[in-house]
Design a protein that fits this description.
- The structure is a single chain.
- This protein has about 120 residues and is α+β, with helices and mostly antiparallel strands.
- Helix content is about 25%, strand content about 20%.
- Strands 1-2-3-5-4 form a 5-stranded antiparallel beta sheet, covered by helices on one side.
- The longest helix is centred in the middle third of the chain and has 17 residues, at about 65-80.
- The chain is globular and about 40 Å long.
- The protein starts with 8 loop residues before the first helix and ends in a 9-residue tail after the last strand.
- The structure holds adenosine monophosphate.
- Adenosine monophosphate binds near residues 20, 35, 98 and 100.
Length: about 120
């Protein structure tokens, strides 16, 4: 397994070395606006732990951490007002799938009609 590289941009955001448009923060989770939004609402939700991708998170975090993370994603979506009209969750695992930042994250996308599944 490729090791986690703590020089990635999200690790820098967690360490407050670079700024973000904060949406939510607690001891183990951070949510902030994507710098290149693809929709009126485009928020990235990340665990603060050092997980390279979805696969790393699922296999290395505890079931409780995984459950808390996705429960928090759900709460953030609701707080952003997306519950009724709908939203999309995306997580790219690996370069072929389009992952460019190698710290596990979920894209929370909404605020407009979304059609089509893959690029
Ligand atoms: P992915 O391609 O799935 O790895 O998603 C990475 C996302 O991170 C892209 O949508 C980028 O626009 C976003 N991104 C990169 N740098 C920053 C940053 N400094 N602040 C917020 N979002 C960023």
């Amino acid at each position: 397994m490729t090791p986690y590289d703590s020089s990635n941009v999200f690790a820098k955001i967690i360490r407050k070395e670079i700024p973000c448009q904060l949406v939510y923060e607690d001891a183990e989770t951070l949510a902030f606006r994507d710098i290149q939004p693809v929709a009126p609402v485009h928020v990235l939700v990340i665990p603060k732990g050092a997980y390279r991708s979805f696969s790393d998170f699922i296999t290395q975090a505890t079931p409780e951490q995984v459950a808390r993370f996705f429960s928090r994603v759900h709460i953030i979506a609701a707080e952003l007002g997306l519950e009724e009209d709908g939203y999309r969750l995306v997580s790219n695992h690996g370069a072929q799938a389009g992952q460019t930042v190698f710290h596990f994250h979920v894209h929370l996308i909404g605020g407009r009609e979304i059609r089509g599944l893959a690029g």
